[in-house]
Amino acid sequence: AAEQGHAEARFSLALMLEVGAGLDRPYPEKAAVWYRRLAQENAHAGAAHNLGILHAQGSGVPQDVPFVVVLV
To answer: How far is CA 22 from CA 13, 25, 31, in A?
Structure first.
């Protein structure tokens, strides 16, 4: 179903890959591919959010450089 473009199937697959549900270990790098595809092709906010979290943590993808906002 995910390969056929069903958005929620793609999201479920990505979630399972991220945490390793039913697998030998988590695969956040593969989850990131599905999250990115889902966010770009389906404008899926949850996928975009989870992809951002993976980047913030550096889990399976390059870590974003944190920045600090200074209010004056």
So the answer is: 11, 8, 14
For 3-17, the pLDDT digits (tens) are 888 999 999 999 999
pTM, to two decimals? 0.83
C-beta separation of 20 from 29 below 8 A: no
Is 44 in contact with 11 (CB distance < 8 Å)? Answer: yes
User: What is the arithmetic mean of pLDDT over 21-30?
Assistant: 97
SS (HEC) of 15-66 = HHHHHCCCCCCCCHHHHHHHHHHHHHHHCCHHHHHHHHHHHHHCCCCCCCCC
